[in-house]
Amino acid sequence: MHRFLMDFQKQKEWNKGNPESFLLSNWRIVKEKFFQGLSIIIVFFIVSGCSHIQNETGILEGNVTIGPLSPVSQAGVVEPTPAPEVYSARQIVIYSKNGKNELAKVPIQSDGSYRIELKTGEYLVDINHIGMDFSKDLPVLIEIKADQSVHLDIDIDTGIR
Length: 161
Hints:
The chain is α/β, with parallel strands linked by helices and 161 residues long. 34% of the residues lie in helices and 30% in strands.
């Protein structure tokens, strides 16, 4: 601001005899300062806006159970824990809200867990149907909110009887 006043004083002294020239020169200075300030404001909003967008994500996570794994189950006998390759063969599939666009495939970890960071919004969640796999819980519409987690456990029925 101090520099602006000094420039203004110089212009006033140089243009004492010509008021029109004085107004035009000072308009140039005012216009330059205005656009410098406007540029700073625009950069500030762009930078702060970008950091705000980056924080607009949430988490979808849960656990997957898969079974039955053998055609004959005996009453009272606990089903065996699926091998890691049973989980790795399957994925959680994330679609756009209308279900038309596949957005991501989420691997299932060997312990049955899965996790993905998504932008805020609504998504349709399903599985990649291999063989006779199905889930009575899916597809399901979920909403991801900023800085929040959605927990969705999924039971995959292999169709083995």
